[in-house]
Amino acid sequence: MVGVVEVISPGHRHHGGGLALREVASLRREGPRKMKSVMRLRKQRLRWITWVVPMLSLLAVAGCTEAASPKSAARTATVDCDRIAGNGRTFYESNPTYPDPRGGGAALSPTPPEEQGLDSTMLRTGLTKLGNNASLFSALVIRHDRLVAERYYHGSDAQRSNNVHSASKSILQALVHIAVAKGYIGSLDDPVADYLPEYFGNASPDKKKITIRHMLTMTSGLDWTEDSTESQVEKASDWVKAILGRSLVSVPGTAFNYSTGNTHVVSAVLQKATRMSTCQFAHQYLFGPMGITAEHWGRDPRGIFSGGYNVYLTPRELAKFGLLYLHDGKWGGQSLVPHSAVRAAQARTSQVDDLAYSEGWWMDTISGRSMYFAWGYGGQFVYVIPSADIVLVTSENTSENTSNKEIDSRAFIRDYLLPSMTGP
Question: Rounded to whole angstroms, how far apart are CA atoms 198 and 132?
Answer without folding.
Answer: 51
